[in-house]
Amino acid sequence: MSQIMLVSMLLFFVLTVPVAIAVGLANMVGVAWDGRMTFLVIAQQLYAALDKYPLVAVPFFILAGNLMEAGGMSNRMVEFAKSLVGGVQGGLACSCVLTCMIFAAVAGSSVATTFAVGAILIPAMVRHGYPAPFAASLQASAAELGVIVPPSIPMILFAVSTDTSVGELFVAGLGPGLLIGCALMLYVWLYARRHGLGLQDGHGRLGVWTAFRQSWLALLMPVIILGGIYGGVFTPTEASAVAVVYALVVGLFVYRSVSWRDLSKVLHRSVVSTAVIMFIIANAGVFGFLLNRTGIPAAFGAWLGDVFSSPVLFLLGVNAALFVVGMFIETSASIVVLAPLLLPVAIQFGIDPAHFGVLMVVNLALGMVTPPFGVNLFAACSVAGISLEKLVRPLIPFVLVVVACLMLISYVPEVSLWARDLVYR
Predict the structure, then answer these.
(1) Keywords of this protein's UniProt record, alphabetized (predicted)?
(2) What is the three-class DSSP state of 51?
(3) Model-level pTM?
(4) Residue range 395-410, pLDDT digits in tens
């Protein structure tokens, strides 16, 4: 049954069937081929895959990100980031990375970060003389911080799939997020100096104090969310609801940039995004259940243990495999299907679950900025109004920067675990 499921799923991928539908059809093919189960099992497991309390955070974080975008909070974050780093050559490009880091601390989604920040900064960078492909590539790459800097929807999915602590994963994502953000800012600064770009980036930016006064309520949001989680005031799931309430109150009654009429559009967009993710999770859950019945996970774990004789080789093999998987399969589906298979093997090699979870999320986040199915690329192209082909060449250095950071995260566990150990140990 497992072979026919895998073959049929790959066949559907080749036929460009959407990922969630391809996985669901593969489940139906597997059940029909097996003959010992009825299709009622699929309905039961679809429900079981979604009947998990931490998943409540997914729609709330998506809604919070959309409310921030509609309420003008993302624009204020951009102005504050520009006031901090916009005065140096290449400062506008550095502001893009810094804003993505701040916005990611609430939204938890890379696509939401791409649209919210890119809609402001990609046109601004083009006006300041940056090539449009470079600006779009930078935005797509920096937006992947949306799933690395906590809170992160893929980290929630990893925790749900493997019974790992959501809080520990969130804290462990701080170090890698800061590392990748600083590495990207260093690269764009060097690139701007080498090519003579960004000489006028400081023109029109606000002073730090002025920008802070205008944006302090928006900046307070990630402080409340992350401070509440790490301080034990509320759980990550409860934090998602707090984020929605805060964004709604600030947008409606303080900034007054969101009207009651606008809420219907925000809610509609959030419902559609949530439905897509939940549909993937549900079908991937059924896929994992059916594979478990065949004994594939145990056999796969034993095979990995035989092939890789040390943690160093295991991490190298996993990184290579996940990089390829991330290029073709959506991040949520990859995590729900692969995390339960790989984590037990990682634990056998003495790898901390929080470290491995962050490593897996960072690796699959690369798939969001690599063709052919990089969702961030399509979002950035849409905002910039250019074709995907124009992004490939300027994108390569950004991918290499993130890969270098990934190697450091893989083989220096302290990058991920120092904050986790500080909070939880």
Answers:
(1) Cell inner membrane, Cell membrane, Membrane, Transmembrane, Transmembrane helix, Transport
(2) coil
(3) 0.78
(4) 899 999 999 999 999 9
